[in-house]
Design brief:
Oligomer: heterodimer
CATH class of chain B: Mainly Beta
Radius of gyration of chain A: 15 Å
CATH class of chain A: Alpha Beta
Largest sheet of chain A: 7 strands, mixed
CATH architecture of chain A: 2-Layer Sandwich
Number of helices of chain B: 2
Strand content of chain B: over 45%
Order of helices and strands of chain A: HHEEEHEEEE
CATH architecture of chain B: Beta Barrel
Number of domains of chain B: 1
Strand content of chain A: 35-45%
Largest sheet of chain B: 6 strands, antiparallel, barrel
Distance between the termini of chain B: 46 Å
């Protein structure tokens, strides 16, 4: 398979793991129709916008939107970001023989009340990655 | 009879009076439950088909980035129930994706439909 789908498999493997499921944070990919009356959830987008070390490698950012209850400070957003750090920062994931994805350090920015649903408060968690493809 | 029932009955009468201006549309409704990250697939429950009379109140074809057909349809809320973004509607032998809800109240729903044109 190609580098992009291998990268996606590596990133998604984090959220498919039992360790992540045990955190009980509803998690969805981008371009997914989220339904139900959720009080908090995260949405994962992979932006493979940087070059890699060879033609089957790529670098970029994983951006995770964190939605938590509005009116209750940013504490829950920060707690979820710390939880993401525990699962991602400086970790390496490999789901195929074709390569591995290495995560670096994260950053968090506060977006504010969600413009589509102001009952949710939104923060944006970013973590850079390198996907190393094996030639 | 309560006022809600009275309004609903009169709306049904109004749709019947429209005769062939009210078209039959099939709404394909599915309940999405979650996303399976291990297989990269959407987990959804079985879909349900609902047939209802609709009225096309606006139709357009844009040619900006590319050709996109757009339509606004009106139907009775009690005929169809709640709809989700990206569910589909079969109308005039074409399958459309549901977009924005333009107007919704307890009686009438007006929604936008889209497809590549």
């Amino acid at each position: 398979m190609g580098k992009y789908i291998n990268l996606e498999d590596d990133v998604f493997s984090v959220f498919a793991s039992n360790a992540w499921k045990a955190e009980k944070i509803p998690t969805y990919p981008t371009n997914f129709l989220i339904t139900g009356n959720l009080k908090e959830f995260i949405r994962v987008s992979i932006i493979p916008s940087g070059v890699g070390v060879n033609r089957i490698s790529v670098s970029g950012l994983v951006i995770i939107d964190i939605f938590a209850a509005a009116g209750e400070s940013s504490k829950r957003n920060f707690l979820i970001a710390d939880t993401l750090d525990r699962h991602l920062v400086n970790r390496v994931f490999t789901t195929s023989d074709s390569g591995s994805t290495q995560f670096l350090g994260s950053t968090l920015s506060i977006v504010g009340f969600d413009k589509h649903n102001p009952s949710l408060f939104r923060a944006s968690y970013s973590i850079p990655f390198n996907f190393f493809g094996v030639l | 009879m309560g006022l809600h029932k009275t309004v609903d009955t009169n709306l049904s009468k109004a749709f019947r009076s429209l005769k062939d201006l009210a078209l039959v549309a099939t709404f394909n409704k599915k309940t999405i439950t979650s996303f399976d990250f291990s297989r990269s697939v959407v987990k959804s429950t079985a879909s349900e088909e609902v047939t209802a009379k609709v009225v096309i109140i606006h139709s357009a074809k844009t040619a900006e980035d590319r050709n996109v057909k757009q339509m606004q349809i009106m139907f009775k809320m009690t005929d169809v129930g709640d709809l989700l973004l990206f569910e589909t509607v079969t109308l005039l032998d074409e399958v459309w994706k549901i977009g924005r809800h333009v107007k919704s109240d307890r009686f009438i729903n007006i929604i936008e439909l889209f497809k590549e044109g």
